[in-house]
Write a structure and sequence with these properties.
Chain A: Belongs to the xanthine dehydrogenase family. Chain A: This is Aldehyde oxidase. The structure holds 2 protein chains of 2 kinds. Chain A is of the alpha+beta class. Chain A has a domain of 149 residues: Aldehyde oxidase/xanthine dehydrogenase, molybdopterin binding domain (Aldehyde Oxidoreductase, domain 4, 2-Layer Sandwich). Chain A contains 17 helices and 31 strands. In chain A, helix 11 links the parallel strand 22 and strand 23. The relative contact order of chain A is 0.14. Chain B starts with a strand and ends with a helix. Chain B is globular and about 60 Å long. Chain B has a 5-stranded antiparallel sheet with strand order 4-5-8-6-7. A 4-stranded antiparallel sheet of chain B has the order 9-10-11-12, sandwiched between helices. In chain B, strands 1-3-2 form a 3-stranded parallel sheet, with helices on one face. By secondary structure, chain B is of the alpha+beta class. Among the domains of chain B are: 45 residues; 105 residues, 2-Layer Sandwich (Enolase-like, domain 1). Classes of the chains: A alpha+beta, B alpha+beta. The interface between A and B is medium-sized, with 38 and 32 residues.
Chain lengths: 748, 329
């Protein structure tokens, strides 16, 4: 491990490449089709896999008629329960980095847990042949009449939420019950967020290829190391015999963090047939087999005094999970930290439904929990006849009371001020329906945004080459967020070599192990590792340069700096590439592994933000539109303002989807009704409001040497609450169940 | 792989003749409905006849003032055509509110008339559907029916007709020209699409072998026109409720109003009762509201789509208000 200095008081260094608006270095490849996505991979002698899925939601598969399908043109084999390889489940352990999306192996038993579950896997010489044959597989079922696809049907609407309590999720400080009982002002409300699907642009795909006993799998993955580790466990193979490659990803939003069963089916089929197999899921299959944000029910109880001071906060959550894989969305957890309240209790329940395993979806848990808490605060402000922003100011958390630690860095107050001022919050009329403009009623709403700042261990390798270029390699991946670019900026910052001369390699599990692209932690994790690897390599360069006869002979190692790609000591200097050429060395490399240290036990790390929303409600035609979103974000140092802003804007758009449109629907018979992009409504360009994002750029040096936190999730948080609060301001209708649909507005 | 024969035809009689010889044939123009449904295994034509080379791409002003539109005129071309924009804005607006630029560039006028429902149960061959497989039952009636119809439904089918253009054409008044083995015939546009009744698989009055060759719009009715489409998001979604209004004033009163509805009915819906309620009435909010009530007096709501009755009335009132304002301008 390389040691790092972390000091909050340090002087900001002058940076040349970090903090610069650098267009994505992989942009040209993406524009020209040069970026090799998983499904683009074609291997010699390749075959095509197509899954057959269950058409019932609960029961047992009692038989499969395969004869007709096996006789279809081009069919090579059909895999199913009776002929599938005997494999071991992955331990499914996050800490051991082998967590998978659905721990149940494909075809493991004949029980049907959900509609869409894989019951067979057809492999043929072309995609079309495989698909046509899949439709000739006849399945026989014993159907259970009882199935559950909507947890709301279990909710009585008052008191405790349905489901099983998860004891490990319960946390509390003080005595929330007693404080609630004695509070002068009380609120007790229920909220819900519909199931959402990630709806990624690039379909999930696997291309598996065996060479002797080595497996290479091309996958659209947010975690090549996790998938490598999981496959190694499942197939009982040494890590070094499995390679997972994911050079480019067309968005993941969490659905590609952990491996799904299609990859295992594909790998098994490739081994059995002795030929590469490519599987590209259809949109319909993807909606049923690659996770989703589980529907959550929530109950928030707040006790306050007349001045708005929070005396007690209970936040209870309940989310759906699956018999095929447990997922706890911990929706209430962040409420322990958001505001200054000395008596807080958070719990979570789980209900098992007939769906595939839920998984993380952008700002998992917190986006849902934040909606409930930030809407409840708006309701409390109205009860108190107080400005909702003022209510939040009065309850600013000076420290993280839940763990009794100071914040590493917290500029939430500046976020509130900055965003409120840019939005024009002072022009808000708190009376619902009071702000009119022609046919439309204008509504203003706001919410606090927040997301935990995390960092993981990480390896990275850099290599100075004799042609002046610099190799940077890390076993993480770029899911479209700009990781390639900021890794290059970091290496450029630390060497002075221009970004254009830096060759970044990511998305390959054989590289030094890097983090998942998730949880807004890749930036804070990868950059220190790249920087440390540069230091390792520069030490080797110094040895070369100061050796006898070398260009910096006799120079003190400490006196040597690397600047503009040159080693400089006093008035002597040598270009690194020239040094290598002189020594007939092709490349000098350095590898480092970095990790978070004891700072986790000394400080609490979070990013913060404030989001303000203007909605327009035309009651004559029941039309709700979001006209304007203003957000100010405190996410530490901004490494690349272009990609950073893009992340926040994207999060906001996703938040609009959560607030207004997105809802995965199952009919009363358990049938998935809208598993496609025509019927599952996401915002489109015409829905885009004016979006104004400001990034504060206060480095958080306690987290890493650059002071960077992540910002993939935070943009989404707060948006649904700000929209629903603005809807109340416009309409006087309080919609507590997302999305705010036309029929809810009409019936409220 | 599902094999089908593809043949291109150069002349109308050739297209029609082919159609008579083979059952299980489909014509393809833009393909924006057919190809989707083939891939979904909902339509399984053995032979596909490509009609895109037929000479049906002109828009022609007839001597009697009517406008004759070739069935292969694209949705984009029709929406942007000078005469359509000037004399039939309700049709232009309807077209531009539908789909996306890319789809409108591909989609043809005749194909738009032949669009099939977006009912998800219809589009999934694993689900019971009387329209796709008569006698199997309707999954929507006791399933999710938020997007389904409240007018013109039957116990067999409650699927909506998805077109915007057709709603505009019903309001503007039009005639379809059909060419078949037995020659040419004309059908009033609003009689072409059929109510589901007991035969939801029969969607229109097209006889075996017939091809739509033209749509002839009635001579312009003038007045104020407006197409209003209400839906969840701002674009790229089928209507939850839409209204095409053509209003001619007689002083401060309504002389003649023509109203058609989309998104709420099993076919492009002429709101006759609402039109009757408006005739000779003052052009006021109260009259518009009375007309809206009349339009939905026979509506039947299902478990998820009751809001469409409210929304449909709102579409009528607002479309009438804005069309009237244009009539006055």
């Amino acid at each position: 491990m390389t040691t790092e200095t972390r000091n909050p008081q340090r002087q900001d260094e002058t940076l040349n490449s970090i903090g610069i608006k650098k267009p994505r270095i992989d942009g040209i490849l993406k524009l020209t089709g040069g970026a090799d996505y998983a499904a683009d991979r074609n291997l010699p002698n390749q075959t095509y896999g197509y899954p057959v899925t269950s058409t019932i939601a609960s029961g047992e598969l009692t038989g499969l008629d395969l004869e007709e399908a096996l006789n279809m043109p081009g069919v090579l084999d059909i895999f199913h329960h009776d002929n599938f390889d005997r494999l071991s489940r992955s331990p499914n352990d996050f800490a051991a980095e082998n967590k998978v999306g659905e721990p149940r192996l494909p075809f493991e038993d004949n029980t049907i847990y959900y509609q869409g579950q894989y019951i067979a896997f057809v492999v043929a010489d072309t995609f079309e042949h495989a698909r046509a044959a899949s439709r000739k597989v006849r399945a026989h079922y014993r159907k259970n009449d009882e199935q559950l696809t909507d947890i709301a049907t279990l909710d009585s609407g008052e008191g405790e939420l349905p489901g099983e309590d998860v004891p490990g999720d319960a946390s509390s400080i003080g005595d929330a019950d007693t404080a609630y009982a004695g509070a002068a002002v009380k609120l007790d409300q229920r909220y819900s967020i519909a199931q959402e699907n990630h709806s990624v642009m690039e379909m999930h795909a696997s291309v598996a290829h065996w060479e002797n006993d080595r497996l290479t799998i091309y996958e659209s993955s947010q975690g090549v190391v996790f998938q490598r580790n999981a496959l190694s466990n499942i197939f009982g193979m040494p890590l070094e015999k499995v390679t997972v490659i994911s050079h480019f990803i067309g968005s993941g939003f969490g659905s590609k963090l952990f491996m799904w069963p299609h990859a295992v089916m594909t790998a098994v089929a490739a081994r059995r047939l002795g030929r590469p197999v490519k599987t590209v899921l259809t949109r319909q299959q993807e909606y049923l087999n690659t996770g989703y944000r589980p529907k959550s029910l929530q109950r928030v109880r707040i006790g306050a005094d007349q001045s708005g001071k929070l005396l007690s906060l209970h936040h209870d959550g309940c989310n759906e999970t699956s018999p095929a894989g447990l997922h706890d969305d911990t929706v209430s957890a962040s409420s322990m930290k958001m505001y200054h309240c000395e008596n807080v209790s958070a719990t979570n329940h789980l209900v098992t439904v007939n769906k595939c395993a839920p998984t993380s979806m952008r700002a998992p848990g917190e986006a849902s929990g934040n909606f409930a808490l930030e809407t409840a605060l708006d309701e409390l402000a109205i009860q108190l006849e107080m400005d909702p922003l003022e209510l939040r100011r009065r309850n600013f958390a000076e420290t993280d009371l839940s763990v009794q630690l100071p914040w590493s860095s917290n500029h939430l107050k500046e976020c509130w001020d900055n965003a409120a001022s840019r939005f024009g919050w002072d022009k808000r009329n708190p009376t619902p329906g009071a702000m009119k403009d022609g046919d439309e009623i204008v509504g203003y709403g706001m919410a606090t945004q927040s997301w935990e700042a995390m960092r993981q261990h990480c390896g990275a390798r850099v290599g100075f080459r004799d042609d002046g270029t610099l190799l940077v390699a890390c076993g993480t991946q770029d899911i479209g967020t700009g990781t390639y670019t900021i890794a290059a900026q970091t290496a450029s910052e630390r060497t002075g070599i221009p970004v254009e001369m830096i060759d970044v390699r990511l998305g390959d599990s054989s590289l030094p192990a890097g983090p998942l692209s998730g949880g807004s932690m890749a930036t804070a994790t990868v950059l220190p590792a790249v920087s440390a690897a540069v230091r390792e390599a520069v030490e080797k360069l110094k040895e070369l340069a100061t050796a006898e006869g070398g260009p910096l002979e006799n120079a003190e190692s400490d006196s040597i700096e690397i600047k503009d790609g040159r080693l400089v000591s006093g008035d002597r200097s040598i270009e690194v590439a020239e040094l290598l050429r002189q020594n007939r060395v092709g490349m000098i490399d350095g590898e480092a592994h970095t990790a978070p240290g004891d700072e986790k036990n000394q400080y609490s790390f979070r990013s913060w933000g404030a989001v303000f929303v203007e909605v327009r409600w035309d009651p004559g035609i029941s039309r709700l539109r979001v006209a304007r979103v203003v957000s100010t974000i405190d996410a530490g140092r901004i490494i690349n303002p272009l990609t950073a802003r893009n992340q926040i804007e994207g999060g906001i758009v996703m938040g609009l989807g959560m607030a207004m449109f997105e809802e995965t629907e199952y009919d009363p018979h358990g049938y998935p009704y809208n598993n496609n992009l025509a019927d599952y409504i996401v915002p489109v360009n015409a829905d885009m409001p004016q979006v104004e994002v400001e990034l504060l750029n206060h480095p958080d040096y306690l987290l890493n040497e650059f002071g960077a936190r992540g910002l993939g999730e935070i943009g989404l948080t707060g948006v649904a609450a700000a929209v629903s609060n603005a809807v109340y301001n416009a309409t006087g209708k309080r919609i507590r169940d997302m999305p705010v649909s036309i029929e809810k507005l009409l019936s409220a | 792989m599902r094999q089908f024969e593809l043949e291109s035809v150069e002349a109308i009689d050739q297209a029609v003749r082919h159609r008579r010889v083979h059952d299980g044939q489909a014509f393809i123009a833009g393909g924006t409905t057919l190809l989707d449904l083939v891939k979904l295994d909902v339509m399984q034509p053995e032979k596909v006849v490509d009609v895109t080379r037929l000479p049906l791409k002109r828009i022609e002003l007839l001597d009697d003032g009517r406008l004759k539109i070739g069935a292969l005129v694209s949705n984009t071309e029709l929406a942007k055509h000078e005469i359509v924009m000037r004399d039939y804005p309700v049709i232009s607006e309807a077209l531009l509110s539908g789909a996306s630029t890319g789809l409108r560039n591909m989609a043809s006028t005749g194909g738009n008339v032949m669009q099939r429902t977006r009912c998800p149960y219809f589009r999934d061959p694993d689900m019971p559907c009387n329209k796709r497989e008569p006698g199997t039952g309707c999954s929507a009636i006791d399933g999710i029916n938020r997007n389904h119809a409240v007018l013109g439904t039957s116990e067999q089918c409650i699927a909506t007709h998805p077109s915007d253009m057709c709603v505009g054409m019903v309001a503007a008044g039009a005639t379809l020209v059909l060419e078949g083995p037995d020659g040419q015939r004309e059908v009033a546009f609003e009689d072409y699409h059929l109510l589901p009744g007991d035969t939801p698989e029969r969607e229109h009055d097209l006889k075996p072998g017939e091809l739509i060759t033209h749509v002839i719009l009635d001579a312009p009715r003038g007045g104020g026109q407006h197409y209003l489409k209400l839906r969840d998001r701002a674009s790229y979604e089928f209507a939850l409720a839409s209204c095409a209004a053509v209003v001619n004033l007689d002083g401060d009163n309504i002389g003649e109003a023509r109203l058609a509805l989309g998104g709420v009915a099993t076919k492009p819906w002429r709101a006759d009762a609402a039109e009757a309620a408006l005739k000779g009435q003052p052009a006021t909010q109260e009259s518009f509201e009375r007309a809206a009530e009349a339009a939905f007096s026979d509506a039947v709501a299902y478990s998820h789509n009751g809001f469409k009755i409210t929304l449909g009335k709102q579409a009528i009132v607002r479309a009438l208000r804005d069309a009237t304002a244009r009539a006055r301008a």
